[in-house]
Amino acid sequence: MFRFTLGLGFLLALTASAWTHDAPKKLRAGAFAQNINPKKFPISVNGGMTDRQTTQVHDTLHARCLVLDDGLTTIAIVVCDSCMIPREVTDRAKEIVRKSVPISADRILISATHCHSAPTVAGVFQSEPNAEYQEFLARAIAVSIVRAYDMLEPAKIGWGVGKDDTQVFNRRWKIKQGSTLALDPFGKNTDKVKMNPGYMHPDILEPAGPIDPDVSFVSVQTTAGKPIAFLANYSLHYVGGVPDLSADYFGIFAERIGAMLNADKHFVGIMSNGTSGNINNVNFARMAPGKRQPGEQARVVAESVAKAAFDAHKKVKHVDWIPLRMIQKEIELGVRKPTADEVRDAQDRLDQMKGKPLTKMPEIYARETVLMSKYPARVPVILQAIRIGDLGIVANPCETFVEIGLDIKKLSPFKHTFTIELANGYNGYLPTPEHHALGGYETWRARSSYLEVDASRAIMTIWLDLLKEVAK
C-alpha cells in the first residue's frame, strides 16, 4: 500500500472550479521515470505467436510521466515500456492516483510504447499475463504520476516537429495475384497484401501504404532554461533485436535526447508511439542486412531520431504559459465475432492437438477464434484529445494505421497534431476499411485484431469533435 502526503497543491486544486480565466497565467511542470522491471522471474514476454519466457533484464523498463498545470487544468501523460496494457490495468492506476493527488481520470493518458521485449500484461496469442505483475505495474504507473505531480515547478514549454524518413518503412506489401503469400490462417487465399514478406521476395510489388516521418515533440524547461522533460512521438512499431527485457529504441531515445540537451539526472526523456500499426524499421526492398549485436539496431534508430528531434528543437521558442485543455469520450465499437461454425471447427482443430504446443498459424488462430467467441458484441473504447497551446494530441487504445495519423494531422483545427496510440487500454489493430479489404495479418480476427471494419471512421469522427472542443 502506497501512502502519499496531500499538501497545499491538493487544497488549491479543490478550489480550481471556482477560478476564473483571470487566474494567474503560470505554467508548472513535473516529470518522473518509475522503474517497472518485474521482481520475479521467469516471466512471459509479449510480442510473439508463441509464448517466450525470460529471466534477465537487458536495460531498465520505465513508466515515464509528464504532468503539466496551467493554473486551471492539470494533465498527466504516461508512457510505459510495455507492449500493450489492458484497460483494467490503466483504470486501476488511475484509481490509485485519484486517492492520492487531484488529477481526475479523464485528465490522465497512460500508453504503451509497444516494445516486444517487456513482460506480458495483455493476453495476446499464447502469451498470458501474470496478475501479480499487472497489479505491480498499475501501482508503479500511479507512483510515476504522483511523483511527477509532487515535482511541479514553474516552467516554460515549447513544441516542434523534426523529420526522419530513414527509419520507417511500410511493412505491408502488395503481392502478385495467385501468390502463396496470400494464404491466411483460416484457409483462405484472398489476401492482397503481406506483412513482412521477406527481403526482395519475388512476389512483392510495392508497399501498400505511406509512412509518417514526423518526429513531433513537446519540450519542457525550468524558467531558468534547465530541461525538465522531452515528450517525443514517432510512428515506428518497434525495433527489437534484444532477447531479454528491454525498453528498445524508446528507452535509448530517452537517454540520447537527454545527453544532447545536456540535461541532468532528473530529466525525463519520453518517446511515445504514433500511428505505427503498419510501419516498422525493415526495408524489404533491399537485401537483408548483416547480423547485428543485441540492441545495436535500436541504438542506430534512437540516435537518428533523437538527432532529428534535437535539430528541430534548436529552433523552438519556449514560453512561460499556454492554455491546457483535455477531454475524453468513451464510445462503444462492434466486435468481429466468429460464427458458430467457425468456433466449432476451431475447437475441433484444438481437440486434435490433444494439448500439444501450438506452433502452426491455423492452430494458433483456432485458439484465438475460440477465445474471441467469448467476447461481447460491443466493447468500450476511450478516446482523448489534448490541447497544449496550438498543438493538438489525440489518443486511442489501438495499434493505429499510419493513414489514420496522417488524416488527423490534415483535418485537425490545430497547426500540428499527433497521435499517441495504445493509450488507456488495448483494443488491437486499427486498419482503415480500405486495408480491411486488402486483408493481411493486421486484419486477421484475433485478440490482436477484432474491432468492426469501420472502427477507424467512428474514431476519426469523435477525435475531430474532441479537437474542436479543446480548440475553443
Topology:
Elements: H1 8-14, E1 28-35, E2 43-45, E3 52-54, E4 62-69, E5 74-80, H2 87-98, E6 108-112, H3 131-150, E7 153-163, E8 169-170, E9 172-175, E10 193-195, E11 204-207, E12 214-222, E13 227-234, H4 248-260, E14 268-273, E15 279-280, H5 296-313, E16 324-334, H6 340-353, H7 361-372, E17 378-388, E18 391-395, E19 399-400, H8 402-411, E20 416-420, E21 429-430, H9 433-438, H10 455-471
Parallel strand pairs: 5-6, 13-14, 18-20, 19-21
Antiparallel strand pairs: 1-4, 1-7, 2-3, 4-5, 7-12, 8-15, 9-10, 9-11, 12-13, 16-17, 17-18
What is shown here, in short?
By secondary structure, this protein is of the alpha+beta class. The protein has helices at 8-14, 87-98, 131-150, 248-260, 296-313, 340-353, 361-372, 402-411, 433-438, 455-471; strands spanning 28-35, 43-45, 52-54, 62-69, 74-80, 108-112, 153-163, 169-170, 172-175, 193-195, 204-207, 214-222, 227-234, 268-273, 279-280, 324-334, 378-388, 391-395, 399-400, 416-420, 429-430.
Describe this structure in words.
The chain has 2 domains: 24-166 and 210-330 and 378-471, no CATH class; 338-372. The chain has 472 residues and is of the alpha+beta class. The protein contains 10 helices and 21 strands. A hairpin with a 4-residue loop joins strand 4 and strand 5. The chain is 27% helix and 25% strand. The strands form 6 sheets. Strands 6-5-4-1-7-12-13-14 form an 8-stranded mixed beta sheet.
Largest sheet: 8 strands, mixed
Rounded Rg: 22 Å
Give the neighbour order of strands across the main sheet.
6-5-4-1-7-12-13-14
N/C terminus separation: 41 Å
Low-pLDDT parts are: 1-21
Oligomeric composition of the shown chains? single chain
The total number of structural domains is: 2
Helix amount, in percent?
Answer: 25-40%
Gross morphology: globular
On the 0 to 100 scale, the average pLDDT is: 94
Tell me the number of helical segments per DSSP (H or I, 4 or more residues long): 10
